[in-house]
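ok so I'm stuck.
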Amino acid sequence: MFELEHIVNPLLKWFHGHARVLPWREEPTPYRVWISEIMLQQTRVEAVKPYFERFLAELPDVSALASVEEDRLLKLWEGLGYYNRARNLKKAAVIIRDQYQGELPSEVSLLMQLPGIGSYTAGAIASIAYQKPYPAVDGNVLRVISRVMEDHQDVLNQSVKKQYEESLQAIMPKDQPGAFNQALMELGAMVCVPNGAPRCEECPWNTFCLAKKRGCIAELPHKAKKKPRVIEEKTVLLIQDEKKVAIRKRPNKGLLAGLYEFPMLEGICTRDQVIHYVEQLGFKPIYVGELERSKHIFTHKEWHMLGYTVRVDELDRPGSDVDLGGFELIETRETEADYPIPAAFVAYTRYLNIKLGNSKYQ
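replied:
not stuck anymore, here's the structure
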């Protein structure tokens, strides 16, 4: 049977010599650790860095986050995706401000009562910011532990994750819990990587990793097959005149809740169908041009999209009785500055010279 405590010393020695320099590691306050860990969920480190710096510059503490307007919060988050992460940050910040005097609690049980914080994030905050011996088990950790022990259990099973958490807590060094958790994550991100061949020659566990010894690294971690994503076809319309474009806010619940979208029809529509729809809004199209097809992948579904650019005489007509179906008429420069648009539409915003997320700052 594999003795898991063997991983500790080689791992910590490796980490202290190979840890990446990351902005949230330079000053690991509870607030900074919390924000970084939420941003890093489902998102690459390199993508998060500039978002983290901008977010902290504008919202440097719990009070600022609790008070920010939602549209501004989502604009700061624009391009990171999974926008409920941002909403939960604000909800949690209000609770922390009102119930904990603006300081995140240090106990995992209290952290897990806050919106958007599960066992992994709670363990990361408690161990990294407060040096409390709690594990933080994410996908990287599940992968490296399943491989070093050659464990073929389904790592997507919550009981398996709980088992790993208990096993790691039992061996966690009490004087370096934060370094230990970060080292496990770092090993999974940099050496025992999720895609492609692991860099076993660089691994501090290469002399005793059971998956390496038995030649089954590629089989681990074992994950039960997920249901295939649902495919939805959409037609995206850029209805615009020389200055303005039609957008509207999505409902406050559901997919991409509270973000702004362009007019969108179900299915892949023909040019004639698009013209008919635009005329129903009360406009006479001057030009309708087909744009490229695009695809955006969500967790459980995919959008397969076709775009059209639609030029009309004038969008803003004082005194008009035109029913725009909830759409607002916005100057494109305002859209880029103030209206959070999801990355699902990035293939089409460039036709309006609207830059999203990081691209605005490059």
